[in-house]
Amino acid sequence: MHFTTFISLALALASSTLVTSAPVADPAPAELSKRAIEVVYLTRCLVGSSQSGFTQYQQEMAYYSDINASQAGQVPSYNNRAVFNTVPYGGAPPLYVGTKSGLFPTGVTFRSVIAADGYQKFVGVAAGTGDNGYHSNWVCKRDSTRLLYEIPGSRYCQAEFYCQH
After folding, report:
1. Who is most buried in 76, 134, 145, 162, counting CB within 10 A?
2. Helices and strands of the chain, counted as H and E runs
3. Are 136 and 60 in contact (CB under 8 A)?
4. Nearest Cα to 130, choosing from 116, 146, 147, 113?
5. Do 40 and 132 form a contact (C-beta atoms < 8 A)?
6. Long-range Cβ contact pairs of 46-52 (< 8 A, separation 24 or more)
7. Do 87 and 56 meet the contact criterion of CB atoms below 8 Å apart?
8. Is the CB of residue 165 less than 8 Å from the CB of residue 135?
């Protein structure tokens, strides 16, 4: 009888020890927030207005820290626009073939390298690369020459390529 009491007591203690020493699961980790996808558009802008007439073509690189903020005609801030190649309207518009660099007012330079056949690529197909000094792994893809944004009466910018990393 004495031995049976001892075994019962030992089992009771062992089971309570097992329960209290069981590992406690870590609380579920907080959901990680996804980083926004940066994008630089290589645009051709018509300067002037459709009413009074366009006077120039300008090549402009337009940076958006979140691609979702570029899908409904949003105008990038002044610091996020790098205008660089201006030619008279009516002649051949400038192209992005080869290496082009745009200096943003923030001091950042974006350099794109578009293949010679870049304009023959289908929309969404890789046509070149880009580099902003922070990331060198940007992939530039053909866009549809859609209206990216407009500043009424002064600027009408079409997306020719878009670059992401």
Report:
1. 162
2. 1, 8
3. no
4. 113
5. yes
6. 46/89, 46/155, 46/156, 46/157, 46/158, 47/86, 47/89, 47/154, 47/155, 48/89, 48/154, 49/152, 49/153, 49/154, 50/156, 51/153
7. yes
8. yes
Strands 155-164 and 39-49: antiparallel
| Predicted model pTM | 0.78
Residue whose token pair is 């400038």? 94
- pLDDT of 120-143, one tens digit each? 999 999 999 999 999 999 999 999
Rg (the chain; Cα; Å) = 30
**Which tokens in the block code for residue 43?**
């645009």
Model pLDDT for residues 55-109, shown as the tens digit of each residue: 999 999 999 999 999 999 999 999 999 999 999 998 889 999 999 999 999 999 9
In one-letter notation, the amino acid at residue 93 is P
Q: Cα(first)–Cα(last) distance of the chain, in Å?
A: 77
Specify the 3-state DSSP secondary structure of 29.
Answer: coil
Closest Cα partner for 112 from 125, 127, 123, 124? 127
Unique residue bearing structure tokens 């929309």: 123
